[in-house]
Design goal:
Elements lengths: L2 E6 L6 H17 L3 E7 L17 E2 L8 E4 L4 H7 L2 H12 L3 E4 L3 H7 L7 E2 L15 E2 L4 E4 L2 E4 L4 H14 L1 H10 L22 H11 L4 H8 L1
Parallel strand pairs: 1-2, 1-4, 2-3, 4-5, 5-9, 6-7
Antiparallel strand pairs: 8-9
Length: about 230
């Protein structure tokens, strides 16, 4: 039986949050025909991202109402606006209801939280907004990716590739995951080395985050108060 892995699109999302994990699981579908990959949105018109590149869904939510795996990407302004979109959150809620696995990348975990999917669960997200997960009943964890039952969340942007490889291993085993990793030549060696997280003063960025929220959610004072209290 074919299993469907669905990615979600919405205006203003971060491109790498989608295309990194999408490339990974597409590799899975090429190696194992039991899996197919789709990209969902409200419609199939091009949607803006946080880069000059627009994105087009392969299917609508109505066409694929019950995917087996659901992945929700994140972003900045676009994601904050989506937090206030009850129709979009209901789409996520319904699509996730029957899914075997539900994942997110970056601030996409906030969307899972706003949809009521993270209550009492360990989760991660972009370091600058990870603390906001508490406002949705989640337990923020500073890890590259976090698995809690059927929920798997990734930290910021590029961490989505790691999460997707962990997802492939969970679905199809280590050998397949290693083959996908080899095929996309995922062997990170950043020119400046890794991030020195001990030297990052995360609380000092809170005013920037609060300012972003205040601007994006100005017309939604109740949600804004919940996230900035």
């Amino acid at each position: 039986m074919t299993k469907t892995i669905a990615f979600v699109l919405y205006p203003g999302l971060t491109v790498l949050d989608v295309v990194g994990p999408l490339q990974v699981v597409t590799g899975l579908s090429q190696l194992d025909p039991r899996y197919r990959v789709v990209v969902l949105a409200e419609g199939t018109a091009p949607l803006p991202s946080d880069t000059p590149l627009g994105l087009v869904a392969s299917h609508t939510f109505d066409e694929i109402p019950e995917p087996d795996v659901l992945i929700v990407p994140g972003g900045m302004e676009g994601t904050m606006a989506a937090l206030a979109d009850d129709t979009f959150l209901e789409r996520i809620r319904r699509a996730a209801a029957g899914a075997d696995l539900v994942g997110s990348v970056c601030t996409g975990s906030l969307l899972l939280g706003a949809a009521g999917l993270l209550e009492g669960r360990r989760a991660t997200g972009h370091w600058s907004m990870r603390h906001l997960l508490e406002r949705f009943g989640a337990v923020p964890v500073a890890e590259r990716w976090v698995e809690d039952g059927r929920i798997i969340t990734a930290a910021g942007v590029a961490a989505g590739i790691d999460m997707a490889l962990a997802l492939v291993e969970r679905l199809a085993g280590e050998e397949t995951a290693r083959m996908v990793q080899l095929w996309i030549e995922y062997d990170p060696q950043p020119p400046l080395g890794g991030i020195d997280w001990d030297g990052v003063d995360i609380p000092s960025y809170r005013p920037i985050v609060d300012g972003l929220l205040a601007t994006t959610l100005a017309d939604h004072p109740e949600l804004l108060g919940r996230l900035t209290a």
